[in-house]
């Protein structure tokens, strides 16, 4: 059978399989059913000397905040070793010819076919790889920003995940900043040149992410407490900072505790604190131990976040001067942190 006939046959097989992904908002079960094999996909990872195939939970590609969550899995080896599993790694003498416009070389095609489960989807790191593999092998491929985030993670920990890979990634191959990390820093208004990103900045960005996640998980209790607070004191706290709300909930339970008041978004004003204390005096009491624990947890997360921002400030200060560096410094100042920068 000639190459053209093989491609036509592959296209025919591809056309019979469902190709459109479920719409946003589909449940994890829905995405798992669409992906098949309980959501497990095969990832084709291009390394400096060859290709690796790894199993990965493909449902994670479609969950809310996928970029941030995927990035967080590949920051260190402890988490990454539990989310991707090496299936096969082979060195290619002529890697540049493995995937070309006219198809996939025999060695790589054989490697993929032997590792791929029937109907399993394959994630690839380039749009052209997706087009060529789908056309020549008839295999459904996945390629988008979430897949690229997985590729960033594999590159970030290539020495741990692929110890048999002896060649080093070039600066061009290694993505210095992932979209997930960028999303976290953007949330704080911090922009840093990609070529300035190092392990320390990645670590501090990870700390910010973990603090945010820690607080998000407590939002249901905070939302319930907000309704209780409004009922007891008349204060509308829906737009309050989490620490400010947690402080109010603690104060209505323990009005004798001293708190610092002020105009900061994280603090109660004197008048607001007075209304909360008065609510307690009027007999409105909440489950004190629950909200005391909640306050301690939120205050702890705020403290950790501030220290991470201070560390970022030090790292940015030590970076070479540049427009994005200066912008990052200004944004960090807005968060109340700095390292003795002087105005010029």
Automatic annotation (TrEMBL):
Superkingdom, natural source: Eukaryota
Cellular-component GO terms for this entry: box C/D methylation guide snoRNP complex; small-subunit processome
Positions of the UniProt region annotated as Disordered: 1-26
Xref: InterPro entries: Nop56/Nop58, NOP58/56_N
A Pfam family assignment: NOP5NT
Composition skew (Basic residues), residue ranges: 1-12
Alphabetized GO MF terms: snoRNA binding
Segments forming a coiled coil: none
Sequence ranges assigned to domain Nucleolar protein 58/56 N-terminal in this UniProt record: 42-100
Annotated PANTHER family: NUCLEOLAR PROTEIN 5 NUCLEOLAR PROTEIN NOP5 NOP58, RRNA N-GLYCOSIDASE
Protein name: Nucleolar protein 58/56 N-terminal domain-containing protein
Species the sequence originates in: Lolium multiflorum (Italian ryegrass)
